[in-house]
Structure formats: structure tokens, C-alpha cells
Amino acid sequence: MTSSQSLDQNTALPELNAPGTCDLTLLGEGLVLRPSPQDDRPLREAVEASLSRYFDHLDGSSVTDLYAMVMAEVEAPLLASVLDHTQGNQTRAAEMLGLNRGTLRKKLKQHGLI
Prior knowledge:
By secondary structure, this protein is mainly α. It is built from four helices and three strands, in the order E-E-E-H-H-H-H. Residues 1-21 have low confidence and may be disordered.
């Protein structure tokens, strides 16, 4: 099984999220972010718990491209949140993220945010 394949449709993975922002749910070919109730765990703990649950759901199946899948799921909401916080100011968002503005624009396009 590749990381882009679903384990079980509609299986929620609420632990892979920033506190109180969203749940990850497996639907069809990938993970979907959904709003969730407040979670006071540090992001690191939430990611660890979610990945542990993900591996438990693999039920012995192999996985590939896990790094790319997790990074894509985390990067998109990170970029969207920072852009929202800066009220769409890409220069300020790039500074906050520690990215070159051109790199930020490239990532925003990759995730369909601009």
C-alpha cells in the first residue's frame, strides 16, 4: 500500500493537526483536513500519535512516500494559516516562514493557494 492509498475510507486521524485546527480524515486517495475541537497537545505529540495510529491501520501493509504525504498535508494548512494571519501579504508571510518570497509563491501555487 502506498501512502497515497486510503487505509479505510472515512477513517479519522485527528492527531495529525495543530492544536484545535483540523482533523485528518482518509477519504478515497488521500487525507482530508477537517475542523476539529480544541486539542491542547503540542504539535509534536499530535503528529507522533497520528503516525502511530496510521501505522496501526496499515495492518502489515507496506507504505511508500510517507514523508512527502505528511509534508504535503502539513505544509498546505501552514501556508494558508500564515497567509491568513498576514492578511494575504506574501512578503510578510515569507518572512514569518523564513522562506524566500519566490519560494513561498512556488509552494502556494503547488498547493493551489494562489
